[in-house]
Amino acid sequence: MDYERMLREVALRVTRPRVAVLSAVHDHPHADTDSIIGIVREGLGGVSHQAVYDVLRALTATGLLRRIEPPGSAARYEARVGDNHHHVVCRLCGAIADVDCAVGAAPCLTPSDDHGFTIDEAEVIYRGLCPACHTATSSRKDSRV
Ligand SMILES: [Zn+2]
Ligand SMILES: [Zn+2]
Questions:
Q1: In this predicted model, what pLDDT tens digit does every residue of 31-63 receive, in sequence order?
Q2: Ligand 2 (ion): which residues have CB within 5 A?
Q3: I want to staple 76 with a disulfide (CB 3.0 to 4.6 A). Which of 5, 30, 67, 95 is the partner?
Q4: 63 alpha carbon – ligand 2 mean position (Å)
């Protein structure tokens, strides 16, 4: 991945923290801010929380990253942008996975009543249990029998 070029293409100056954050999110999709700070600090000691927050804001504003906010969870970031994909979130552990949009473009749900709004996006979050939590809950049930 040529992170420096990606930064230049959105007219952002190339800095080590920007490259480090961009590469951390590419390698760890759906990471929250604390994990991103941890990963960035492994490579670049001495980067402040505030610096990472500022970089995340700049990268999101220029469209290099997408910020998602699953209900009941901290904001997460991902580098897969611009394809209107959705997410499935585990109710128990908060694990997140990408789900391709069934339609392919926003808005992928037609509202029954648009109230005169021009609608350009529908946010879809699938919820349920991830395979690990599903296995854990069903084996717990079994042992009770
Ligand atoms: Zn889970
Ligand atoms: Zn995603």
A1: 999 999 999 999 888 899 999 999 999 999 999
A2: 78, 98
A3: 30
A4: 14
Alpha helices in 2-85 (DSSP H): 3-9, 16-27, 33-43, 49-61
Compute the distance from residue 127 Cα to the ligand 1 centre, in Å.
Answer: 10
Beta-carbon contacts of residue 82 (< 8 Å; ≥ 6 apart): 63
Q: Is the pTM of this model over 0.70?
A: yes
Please, what is the angle between helix 33-43 and helix 49-61, to 10°?
110
- The ligand with the least distance to the CA atom of 91 is 1
Query: Hey, what are 3's tokens?
Result: 């992170």
Residues whose CB is less than 8 angstroms from the CB of residue 4 and which lie 6 or more positions away in sequence, other chains included: 14, 19
